[in-house]
Design a protein that fits this description.
Blueprint: E1 2-6, E2 12-13, E3 29-33, H1 42-46, E4 75-77, H2 79-85, E5 90-94, H3 104-117, E6 123-126, H4 130-142, E7 146-151, H5 157-165, E8 169-173, H6 177-191, E9 194-195, H7 201-207, H8 209-218, E10 224-228, H9 233-247, E11 256-262, H10 267-274, H11 300-309, E12 313-317, H12 319-332, H13 339-353, E13 363-367, H14 375-381, H15 392-402
Parallel strand pairs: 5-13, 6-7, 6-9, 7-8, 10-11, 10-13, 11-12
Antiparallel strand pairs: 1-2, 1-3, 4-5
The chain binds ligand F0G.
Length: about 400
């Protein structure tokens, strides 16, 4: 059993109320379980396959889930990058290995299942790309229509391709993500579509399983979990999950929640650095990591609490640092991620260099989306393939000249 509770004033709402903000104070809502009634043991969990649904006792879904087999993503030991940074226990959880290539699938399997549970017949979101790709796929799986709003010209090619091919109604807004989110919110409130951005409390329930899986795969709680931050939903979700595990007695200590933003889009980092109670929105966010090109993160309040309560931190990285780490992950570790995802590992590099990270920490970086999401940014960084005549001497001479 669960109820919805305001994250600020704790006003409670019934589980089947379609509501995204507290009617008393306007803040976001979170799912609150009766943890005393949860009787699952860790060993029972461990007998199930690694997936979002391993943890179903801590999820709100009671209908048969709308699923594409999400979660169960690999946790890689970053041996070469770790050696270079002097971090022997550096890991990457590759969320790009989810069905549509990003962690959003964890949220959408739960969010779209809840749409069905709540008897909603259409869904919508605003997106920097990945949420729209994921929503389109899960809506197709559920057999219901989806509407997605994208910031025109600022969404990576692979993500638009996915949203279109999965049959969503795709609209490009002449404005940024923050404006698209305001618009879709209004559309949902006035026209009854079910909103599946991270203001939706159920979507974040799915995303918290990233932390559950990382802990299970590592066999212990990492000292630090590092995530790229855009709308700040994911870092808040992983923290919420850890709090639940702690309350259940499954967690001996909390990981330090650490958020990384791009320098041109860093309201959470500023708030942490300057000790602000709330973030000041960035009116013109800009970064090559378009997934996290967000100036007014709607989950910032929760993210600031997660970072502060766990003794974590927030750091910014430049576009050059992001792209350099994208190449390093690809070429030194064989791990292909999109730019926003590389921000988490680039952030760790910076935190090591400025002495904020202890070298024997066990660190899990969440790399959030697949390399193929944004092929244009990849192609811009790499030399074109050399075109040669179709004979062996040309091949050998090309190999010699490029070696
Ligand atoms: N990494 C990737 C690849 C993302 O797509 C996003 C968010 C984030 C990190 C940041 O996560 O917003 O929970 O802090 N993408 C959203 C979208 C906004 O529309 O796809 P967050």
């Amino acid at each position: 059993m669960f109820r919805l509770v305001c994250v600020r004033c704790a006003k409670a709402y019934p589980p089947d109320e379609i509501i995204y903000h507290c009617t008393r104070c306007g803040h976001l809502l979170a799912v609150e379980y009766d943890l005393d009634a949860v009787t699952i043991t860790r060993s029972a969990w461990e007998k199930r396959p690694l997936s979002v649904w391993r943890y179903r006792e801590l999820l709100p879904v009671s209908v048969s889930p709308v699923t594409l087999n999400e979660g169960g993503t690999p946790l890689y030991h970053l041996t070469r990058i770790g050696e270079e940074l002097g971090l022997p226990f550096l890991y990457a959880k590759h969320e790009g290995m989810n069905p549509t290539g990003s962690f959003k699938d964890r949220g959408m399997t739960v969010g779209v299942s809840m749409a069905i549970q709540l008897k909603k017949s259409s869904v919508a979101c605003a997106s920097t790309g990945n949420t729209s790709a994921s929503l389109a796929a899960y809506a197709a799986r559920a057999g219901i229509p989806a509407v997605v709003l994208l910031p025109a010209g600022k969404v990576a090619l692979g993500k638009v391709a996915q949203a279109l091919m999965h049959g969503a109604k795709v609209l490009s807004i002449r404005g940024n993500f923050d404006r698209a989110l305001e618009m879709v919110h209004e559309l949902c409130l006035t026209h009854g579509l079910y909103l599946l951005n991270s203001v939706n409390p159920f979507r974040l329930e799915g995303q918290k399983t990233i932390g559950f899986e990382a802990i299970d795969q590592l066999g212990e709680v990492p000292d630090r979990i590092v995530l790229p931050v855009g709308n700040a939903g994911n870092i808040s979700a992983v923290y919420k999950g850890c709090v639940e595990l702690e309350k259940l007695g499954f967690l001996e200590r909390m990981p330090m929640m650490t958020g990384i933003q791009a320098e041109g889009s860093m309201p959470v980092v500023r708030a942490i650095r300057e000790g602000l109670a709330e973030v000041e929105p960035e009116p013109h966010p800009e970064t090559v990591a378009t997934a996290i090109r967000i100036g007014a993160p709607v989950n910032a309040e929760k993210a600031l609490a997660a970072i502060r309560k766990t003794g974590g931190t927030a750091e910014s990285v430049t576009d050059d640092e992001i792209l350099a780490m994208q190449r390093m992950l690809a070429q030194n570790e064989g791990i292909g991620v999109e730019p926003a995802s590389a921000a988490s590992v680039a952030g760790v590099k910076k935190l090591v260099e400025n002495g904020s990270i202890d070298k024997d920490e066990k660190i899990v970086c969440v790399v959030t989306g697949h390399l193929l999401k944004d092929p244009e940014t990849v192609i811009r960084q790499c030399a074109s393939p050399l075109e040669i005549d179709a004979d062996l001497p040309s091949l050998l001479s090309a190999l010699q000249s490029s070696s």
